[in-house]
Write a structure and sequence with these properties.
Strand order of the largest sheet: 3-2-1-4-5-6
Radius of gyration: 20 Å
Number of helices: 13
Structural class: alpha/beta
Shape: globular
Length: 289
């Protein structure tokens, strides 16, 4: 059993922290900006509640975070009452936020200077993956720190991989989001085309899902897309945040992302339609408006 802190109990962090407590059997202290949510977590799972990130991190072997963006991450790490000021020597900070590679490198540098380790470890699998403890975790950082943290991360993961040095986890997550964006748009267009052609979408998917066009999105989202229901996963607002990170990084490294940029604008159209909290498969709604 390890001493663990978890900072950020949103739709992803709440169940992830629960798996660390219940499946991993670890001693978990939680912090959340809205105290009532942390109180509810403790009532449900046990463990302890801290009033600041620093209080949560004090004396812990492993500190996890899963917050909204770069600014939120800086706030809980190097900001006032941030966790970094309280981290003990030799501890490992594991950040599950989808953030920029730039902030990952910045925090890795700060951690090294303070005598502990930082791993950028964004996740894929959405809310369902978090709730079921089957997330894919893409990690950047020092190999020794990764080897130390991996048995703890395993409590909420199906796949954990070290992708390279600091920032490599975030860069890998960007590739994940780039691939998903184009794939979902293609699926949306295919379903839209099939409807216009008068085909039975269920029969179509039954056949093509077993061929080269098959994907997780097709298997898990085609029914809800066909029914015009978009409350089953990763929100459009979050996807636009992630694609913004991808496009900013591409601007820095010279990569060309024409399809990603186009799909990002399509998601903006969905937001303008009122679909900010619809899941990412709602690209079909844009075609059918």
């Amino acid at each position: 059993m390890a001493s663990v802190a978890f900072l950020g109990l949103g739709v992803m962090g709440y169940p992830m922290a629960g798996h660390l407590r219940n499946k991993g059997g670890h001693d978990v202290t939680v912090y959340n900006r809205t105290k009532a949510r942390a109180e509810r977590w403790v009532a449900e799972h046990g463990g302890k509640l801290a009033l600041t990130p620093a209080e949560a991190a004090e004396g812990k072997e492993f500190v996890f975070s899963c917050v909204g963006n770069d600014d939120d991450l800086r706030s809980v790490t190097t900001g006032a009452n941030g966790a970094f000021a309280a981290m003990k020597k030799g501890a490992v900070f594991i950040d599950n936020t989808t953030a920029s590679a730039e902030v990952a490198r910045e925090l890795d540098d700060a951690a090294r200077k303070a005598g502990f380790s930082f791993l950028d470890a964004p996740v894929s699998g959405g809310q369902a993956g978090a709730e079921n403890g089957v997330l894919t975790v893409m990690v950047g950082g020092d190999e020794a720190a990764f080897d130390k943290a991996r048995p703890v991360i395993d409590a909420y993961a199906r796949m954990v991989g070290l992708m390279g040095s600091a920032g490599a986890g975030q860069l890998t997550k960007m590739i994940n989001q780039i691939a998903i964006a184009g794939l979902v748009q293609g699926l949306a267009e295919g379903i839209h085309f099939g409807k216009k052609a008068g085909l039975d979408i269920e029969k179509v998917i039954e056949v093509i899902s077993k061929g080269a066009a098959g994907s997780w999105q097709m298997e898990n989202r085609h029914k809800t897309m066909n029914a015009g229901k978009y409350d089953f996963g990763f929100a459009v607002d979050w996807m636009r945040k992630d694609l913004g990170i991808c496009l900013a990084e591409a601007n820095r490294n010279g990569a060309k992302l024409p399809v990603t940029a186009l799909v990002d604008q399509f998601y903006k159209d969905v937001q303008d339609m009122g679909g900010k909290r619809w899941d990412t498969s709602s690209l079909l709604a844009r075609l059918e408006r």
